[in-house]
Amino acid sequence: MKGLVLLSLFLFCFVSAFGAEPVLWPIDIEISQSSSFAEMRGMRHHAGIDLRTKQRNGFPVVAIEDGYISRVGVSFRSYGKVIYIDHPKLNAKVVYGHLQDFNGKLKEYVDKKLAKIGKPFGINDYFKPNRFPVKKGDVVGFTGETGSGPSHLHFEMRTMNDEPVAPALFGYRPADSIFPVFHNLYIEPMAYGTVIENSFLPFQMKCIKKSAGYYTLAKVPTIFGRVGFQTGISDSNGVGNKFGIEKVSFIVNGKILIERLFHKYSYSEDRQAPWVFDYFKTSIRSTGYVYNLFKWPFETLDFAKSYEGYSGFLNTLEYPAGKLNFAVKAYDYGNNHIKADGAITCTDISFKDKTIPGEVLADYGDFSVTQNHFSLIAVAKRKPGAKPKQGNLPVFGMIECRDSGGTLFAMPCILREDAIEIAFDNHARWQYGARVKNVKILEETVFVDYNGKLVRSEEGGEVQFNIRSLHFGAFVSFGSADNKCVNSRGLPKITPVWVLKPGNIVFDAEARVRLAFANYAGNPEKLGVYCVSDNGNVSYNGETLEYGILSFVTRTGGKYIVLEDNAAPEVKYSRVGFNYDIGNCFIFTVSDLGKGVDYLGMSATINGKRAVVYSDPDRREVYVKKPAGNKVCDIKVKVNDRAGNVTSVSVKK
């Protein structure tokens, strides 16, 4: 693989944005993508597209135009082995990530430097234009799965200022005849007192498929007030991968209220991904990527730059009563487009015309509370056997609620056949709780606004919200709950479950959570913070230990527990195999119940001599270089976990 090899050009039917010449793809195999540009990845966007490589490594990767290698990296995770190429003719940069290896003089440079530092990673070097020039079609590397698998090529394009841009803008559009899919449509209340289908709560509708590109909505909901629409959409390559789209539009009565075009963004704005997508709904399986069909005033991303803040919000007070038609249109990067038609009924509701007596609460159970950026919504179910006493339902009226100081406020209330709902405005007065008569409606919380605040729990934990952590005020609670239902996988439970609310709002900046672990006499290095799911299962969250306190940062609420990791990792011999970096090797599988395997801290000997060791966290495997010859090998492998537990195994092969 020495020297630069010129591949025959892989021509494609799409025409480059820079002339009539078809684009040269970086790999000369059938082009099939497994992810799209700017789709949501956790709390960020995906900066490129991922190209499938037939579940294999080693396909040549070529320069798509004349230019020069400006940077090279070798890291254990992240992009793994990565090349950055500047292409002045395109006025763009290209990034190739997760490579198996480099080629030519660049490979010689990297191999020499790695040998010098004595590690298989740890390079992040920049070069001037004359150091590693490339011509269009030159092989610069080979596809792999370093940093993060499985096998694929991360293909990213950037402006010369390092802002990610969609490769589609340069003509890189894979052949695509598969239509995207609508999943659900969501309607979110965007003002205090908004009513959707006789409720203060959000509403969800199924999209009914009529043809490959056309959908209708399952219902015509009735709405009063200001709302925002969201839609779940996914595209596919036909073999199981789901990814995002290029453009989505929201149209009301023939007028486009907002359109998002996913062509470019800045890394400095990457944290704004939760303003474009609904993080929580997107995290649910089979919902697709849930796009906000509105724009928050603090969003500065390029996707809807020409639209002002609050674009896409729909206020029924601005429309005459009656039916209002809307449509959602979406296009993928192959120009396949879909449309969903729907309608809403705008209505007028007056809460002030009727007073709802507090005595009606006797027919309802305990209240649960949810919140959005504008309201607290308290909901209680009707008790079994209780008969409605209010005549025709639903009933809209005002109910008197008392704050902690004893002041009475009339709050909007909805009585339905199955439940009662009370809406509270987003005001600090409600942080100390609320009652109707002697019935507790709201628990005590802490109101945190734009200026931030330190929220302490009686059990010794605290959460620090810095200034600008929240764009809207939120009612925050932080306390402990019983840990009996937590499946800790046999790891000792050191604390109760810590519960941080709200759990349905993304913070604009990280809040720092600090957890105390009083009366613990063991080694604090073995303690870890774990997330607790709704069904009681745990997953390692991560933490920092400082001055006897465990801390971590988060942009959402959640449930957490401190466990003691006293379980050593499990190591099993698997087979003889081949690893690209070290050649023929003995392969061991590893797993850990607690804080995870330390993949960088393992070691091995063969017949008493130190052996070369490599590892792959995605495969959960350890590779020990096999010496030449057929003699029996006495292999000893030592594996640590991140809590300091050690497992040593010995096998003869």
Structure description:
The protein is mostly beta strands. It folds into five domains: 11-170, Glucose Permease (Domain IIA); 181-346, no CATH class; 358-444; 448-564, Chondroitinase Ac, Chain A, domain 3, CATH 2.60.220.30; 570-652, Immunoglobulin-like, CATH 2.60.40.1220. It has three helices and 54 strands. Strands 16, 17, 18, 19, 20, 21, 22, 23, 24, 25, 26, 27 and 28 form a 13-stranded mixed sheet that branches. Strands 3, 6, 7, 8, 9, 10, 11, 12, 13, 14 and 15 form an eleven-stranded antiparallel sheet that branches. The longest helix has 14 residues, at 104-117. It starts with 10 loop residues before the first strand and ends with a strand.
Span of the ends, CA to CA: 32 Å
Largest sheet: 13 strands, mixed
Low-confidence stretches: 1-20
Coarse structural class: mainly beta
| Approximate strand percentage | 35-45%
Q: Categorize the overall geometry.
A: globular
CA radius of gyration is: 29 Å
Based on DSSP secondary structure assignment, what is the total number of beta strands? 54
How many domains in all? 5
Mean pLDDT figure: 93
Helix content: under 10%
Question: Count of helical segments?
Answer: 3
Key descriptive features of the protein:
eleven-stranded antiparallel sheet; single chain; 54 strands; 13-stranded mixed sheet; 3% helix; disordered N terminus; 653 residues; 3 helices
Secondary structure elements and their pairing?
Elements (H helix, E strand, L loop, with lengths): L10 E5 L6 E3 L8 E3 L4 E2 L2 E2 L3 E4 L7 E3 L4 E8 L6 E7 L4 E11 L1 H14 L5 E4 L6 E2 L4 E5 L8 E8 L4 E2 L15 E9 L5 E2 L6 E9 L2 E4 L4 E3 L1 E11 L5 E2 L3 E6 L2 E7 L11 H4 L2 H4 L6 E4 L21 E2 L6 E10 L5 E10 L21 E4 L3 E7 L13 E9 L4 E8 L3 E7 L8 E3 L2 E4 L3 E3 L4 E4 L5 E4 L8 E8 L15 E5 L9 E5 L11 E6 L5 E3 L3 E3 L2 E6 L3 E7 L5 E10 L3 E9 L11 E4 L2 E2 L2 E4 L4 E5 L8 E7 L5 E7 L1
Parallel strand pairs: 19-28, 20-28
Antiparallel strand pairs: 1-2, 3-6, 4-5, 6-14, 7-13, 8-9, 8-11, 8-12, 9-10, 10-13, 10-14, 14-15, 16-18, 16-21, 17-20, 18-19, 21-22, 21-25, 21-26, 23-24, 23-27, 27-28, 29-30, 30-33, 31-32, 31-34, 32-33, 34-35, 36-39, 37-38, 38-41, 39-40, 40-46, 41-45, 42-43, 42-46, 44-45, 47-48, 48-52, 49-50, ...
